[in-house]
Amino acid sequence: MSLLSMRDIHAGYGGANILNGVSIEVEAHEIGVIVGPNGAGKSTTLKALFGLLTVSQGSVTFDGKDVTNARPENLVRAGLSFVPQEFNVFPTMSVRENLEMGAYTRRDDFRHLIEKIFEYFPPLREKHRQPAGELSGGQRQMVAIGRALMMEPKLLLLDEPTAGLSPRYMGEIFERVIAINEAGVGILMVEQNARQALAIAHKGFVLAGGKNSFTDTGRALLDNPEVAESFLGGGAKH
Amino acid sequence: MENIGLLSALPINELVFFINKVVIAGLIIGSIYALGAVGMTLAWGILRFANFAHGDLMTLGAFIAFMLTMAMPGLGAYVGLPTAFVVLPIAMAVTAFVTIFIDRTFYVPVRKTNPKPITLVIASFGVMLMLQGLIRLFFGTAPRQMYVGPKEIYRIPLAGRDIVITEPQVLLIVFTAVAIVALHLFLTRSRTGKAMRAMSDNADLARISGIGTAHVVRVTWIIAGSLAAAGGTLLAMDVSLKPDLSFNLLLPIVAAIIVGGIGQPYGAIVGGLIVGFTETLAVFNWAILLRPLKPHMPDWLELPASLTFVPTEYKIVVPFVILVAVLIWRPNGIFRGRVL
Q: Which residues does chain B have within 8 Å of residue A102's beta carbon, measured at their own beta carbons?
């Protein structure tokens, strides 16, 4: 049984549906990547999964339980963490406080986890007292991912973690994502940098018009001339 | 010898007058504004609307303290403090409870419809008018005294003149200082306090982090309601208790919040003191300070008997001017609050 399985999801913001049948399956410890053109419903898929908008049709199961339209706080407890694309830190709170808020539902001592986050993202250690709103874009992204990791999730949802970052930080974030995955955390992320993201993906999902148009391993999607032609810009490169 | 020379050169009369009329008076009214503004700005930042009924929560709290005082007037004598101050914790708790009741009954149904902030502001206007009506219905419109006995007046002599401060004023300043320190520790050290700041910063991310927003909202109302009751009661102890107490407070409190930055509790404290001191400086009679300079002035310059920036009866324009000035030059306030 997959860690996460979304079957034939239909969802929207009250009006017309944006998702018209999206299916996503991610196994434990895998990296799944959702790519596709603007307006394909990539971010909407993550929001529907995380209970931020209403799923009108289809089902979501996570870790063996039905979590269709579950509330975010319950999903967090079940082991699902979400890093939104924007506004993903508490700007007036210090880096450390941001991380503490990620562990809000924990009642145990989580200081060792903060240490672990500092090991993943060394720049945060020296800035731990600084308000997150004063950090650079890349460091803010580190805080955002760190906050989500504080619950020790089984699956981490990342919405365009490299959007707007300089190439240097982009590479660093991808590297960290691989490291986090190697530590046993499943990843499902939406990415604009489709090529780079599919290269590290175990599974890739190409969405268009609120539906799956291709689903395969990351490698296979990169090698698929049709996908390359229509979604990755230009022919497949080897 | 030098010291005496310096002292006699100092215009002690005028200095003491300034301390009495500006430093103490500004600190008193500034503390009241700060107590009101802190609670309102917290609720504003977390619930994204200006609760205009906040001023009447202050009046309500004062009337609850008044009722308790009348019920057991001798209580204060046991501990050597004014009865109204001794019953204050109970009045704060009752007001906090009423505040949560108001939220459940009037604001929660509106919030469920996912309204624009202005809808909630209008709802709070309704609650404000309702509270004002209820208070008048039960207590009438006449001013009342919160004090059972006479007020204790402290005189601190300074070179032959007295700095005058009354017992309720001392209590008010001490209470405000303690409340600010307690609130600071709560917001920076406790789990719930940090969750309040998180929700004020970014409510969606707070939900995503698993923070139970209903709990945070409840605690916010408890703090807002109890500080409002304290501010109202302490002000009524200093002057007198009138049903329209809060109406004169609401505007300076909103000005204090905007000055400090919406949603910023420290900003509200600083803003409250700024508005309080500006008010007292604006109505202060500067002619008295200028009098010692009279011998050095040219003969044709007459010193008027009263020289104020604003006549006392127009004091209420001061917060208006501050409000407009801040909105023009620094719309998100000195502590960079939210722009709404």
A: 209
The CATH number that applies at residue B72 is 1.10.3470
B191 in reach of chain A (CB within 8 A): yes
For residue A47, give the CATH number of its domain.
Answer: 3.40.50.300
A84 is a domain residue: no
Q: Residues 6 or more apart from B337 whose CB is under 8 A from it? A: B41, B45, B257, B260, B261, B262, B263, B264, B267
B340 within a domain of the structure (yes/no)? no
Question: Which run of H or E residues covers position A124?
Answer: helix A122-126
Provide the pLDDT confidence category of residue A233 given band limits of 50, 70 and 90. low
Closest Cα of chain B to A228: distance in Å? Answer: 35
Per the CB < 8 Å rule, is B201 touching A82? no
Q: Report pLDDT for B14.
A: 79
How big, in percent rounded to 5, are the helix, strand and coil portions of chain A? 40, 25, 35
Is the pLDDT reported for residue B214 higher than 50? yes
Range scoring the smallest mean pLDDT among A187-196, B70-79, B213-222, B261-270: B70-79
- For the cut 50, the answer to whether the pLDDT of residue A104 exceeds it is yes
CB-CB under 8 Å, A84 with B209: no
Contacts of B181 (CB under 8 A, 6+ apart): none
Please count the structural domains in chain B: 1
The nearest CA of chain B is from the CA of A146 a distance in Å of: 12
Interface mutation vs chain A, best among B204, B205, B262, B266, most A CBs within 10 Å: B205
Q: Assess whether A24 and A49 both reside in one domain.
A: yes
Same domain, A134 and A196: no
The whole domain housing B265 covers 2-329
**What residues make up the domain containing A100?**
89-152
Quickly state the pLDDT bin for A182 (edges 50, 70, 90): very high
Higher pLDDT among residues A83 and B2, named by residue? A83
Tokens coding A79: 């082991």
